[in-house]
Design a protein that fits this description.
Elements: H1 2-28, H2 32-35, H3 37-46, H4 65-76, H5 83-92, H6 95-120, E1 123-124, H7 128-131, E2 136-137, H8 140-148, H9 151-185, H10 189-204, H11 207-236, H12 241-253, H13 261-278, H14 286-289, H15 297-326, H16 339-350, H17 355-386, H18 390-409, H19 415-453
Antiparallel strand pairs: 1-2
């Protein structure tokens, strides 16, 4: 029964709701994710400097826009980028990749709105210095409470994301790492679990600053390594690339198909893969977007929108092209599914037996482990929204470590089913808030546009939206 409920929520309700939100916000923002792609890249590069917007963090520890971006990428880029894309191809065909691209292009607008709202309604963190935290904290729970004034709604979101990301999703990542290392290197599960638990506790005990520093260095390295592998496989099979691209388009629209069933499956699988991988609209990435010290809410909104492109158009596409260009899928070897299909594709191109397992095992470790530490922060910031207690946060950190260890050694059982349900409910809470509060993000965007047209570096002040008053008092200074 739980499995049926989870399937209904994720396969139908969420796909439809998130797709509607993506289209609505793309139209209302005038295609912000397309018009400001140059600003996205420029802001990300500039925010890599500690000096940028330093005057706007008002004391405490400054988390740069670049660091916040990397933490969100750490959460987004996980095992789904390797296994999920392969599953989409195996079930929905190459056409699913086309629809994955479409939903990423549209979903970036939802990511922009939720992260802009997180910045707008963020608040000073009173325990920043003692908890290893950032100068600011925020996210959907905070903008639901401040913008809508509904504490029950905000608390429901906070509980759901704390359970979903901090505990359930981290269990999945831990279990996947243990599986990969067991297959690739024969490492006992208990050894993997112990190492993972120790590393996790060391990093998360340092708070968001420690997580941000870790993600800032590890995420780019792991992403570049994976992209280079994809480039190598594409280069080796460059003559096959036009055929692969044509296959993606053909199967997306059923040009060479007699019936529409294949098209429908490609649409569903591609849409799901894109939505669930880049997390646009789910309400997860705004929690870290709020920590960034920037001079205007729209700046971080644009940076986080770029994260959708990085996850789906770049990393997920790399996996797709590795599989399709290798010929494993084209040659009919689709008996394999998920991560096995990715491993077969890599091994077929390297000519070395076991190299696919080894590379994928290492990649999964970095992809999944960075997700664990980033997911933890989403849980912590919402736990502190419910009750800002050092003892409670300490207990939560120990629970996260315990779940990482336990699930490295045991099967997931119903954990994934519960995670699907709580994730769906969490997303519905957030999307509802976006429809109610989206108008404020649009006002911020117009203010940003006006200042950019005047040739000045946009700076936001609370008086721009006097209706919100003290709800955005953090922007008064």
């Amino acid at each position: 029964m739980l499995s049926d409920i989870a399937s209904f929520l994720t396969d139908y309700v969420l796909v439809v709701i998130l797709l509607i939100a993506a289209i609505v916000f793309t139209v209302k923002t005038g295609g912000v994710q397309f018009r400001y792609i140059g600003d996205m890249c420029r802001l990300l590069v500039r925010s890599g400097s500690r000096s940028v917007d330093k005057r706007h963090h008002h004391g405490g520890a400054a988390v740069t826009g670049f660091q916040a971006f990397m933490v969100s990428i750490a959460s987004r880029v996980g095992t789904g980028n390797l296994a999920g894309v392969a599953t989409a191809i195996a079930i929905g065909g190459a056409g699913s990749i086309f629809w994955m691209w479409v939903i990423a292009l549209l979903g970036a607008a939802s990511a922009f709105v939720e992260s802009t709202l997180a910045q707008l309604f963020k608040e000073h963190d009173p325990r920043a210095a003692e908890s290893g935290g950032a100068a600011f904290r925020g996210g959907p729970a905070y903008y639901i409470l401040k913008g809508i004034g509904n504490r029950t709604w905000a608390a429901a979101f906070a509980v759901l994301i704390t359970v979903t990301f901090g505990l359930a999703f981290n269990s999945v990542q831990s279990n996947t790492i243990a599986d990969a290392f067991g297959e690739a290197f024969g490492v006992p599960r208990i050894a993997t679990g112990l190492v993972l638990t120790v590393l996790t506790l060391i990093i998360i005990w340092g708070g968001i600053r420690s997580i941000a520093r870790f993600s800032q260095w590890v995420v780019p390295v792991m992403a570049v390594a994976y992209i280079l592998l994809a480039i190598y496989i594409i280069a080796v099979n460059f003559s096959r690339l036009p055929e692969v691209l044509a296959m993606i388009v053909d199967e997306a629209f059923g040009i060479n198909e007699a019936f529409g069933g294949t098209v429908g499956m490609a649409l569903v699988m591609g849409t799901k893969r894109g939505l669930f991988s880049n997390e646009a609209g789910e309400g997860s990435t705004p929690n870290v977007a709020a920590t960034a010290s920037v001079s205007h809410p729209v700046k971080q909104g644009l940076i986080q929108a770029l994260g959708v492109f990085t996850d789906t158009l770049l990393i997920c596409t790399c996996t797709a092209l590795i599989i399709l260009c290798s010929g494993v899928y084209h040659d009919g070897c689709t008996g394999a599914n998920g991560i096995v299909l990715t491993q077969q594709a890599i091994e077929s191109q390297t000519g070395s037996h076991g190299l696919g397992e080894t590379f994928v095992g290492i990649a999964i470790f970095f992809f999944a482990f960075t997700s664990i530490v980033a997911n933890y922060y989403y849980g912590e910031t919402n736990l502190r929204f419910l009750r800002d207690s050092r003892r409670l946060v300490t207990a939560y950190r120990l629970c996260v470590g315990g779940m990482v260890f336990a699930r490295a050694m045991a099967s997931l059982g119903t954990v994934w089913v519960f995670a699907d349900i709580t994730m769906a409910l969490m997303t519905l809470c957030n999307v509802g808030a976006l429809f109610v509060l989206g108008k404020w993000a649009l006002i911020c965007l117009e203010d940003y546009r006006t200042q950019r047209r005047c040739g000045i570096d946009p700076t936001f002040h609370a008086t721009t939206i006097p209706e919100l008053g003290d709800k955005i008092s953090v922007w008064n200074k």
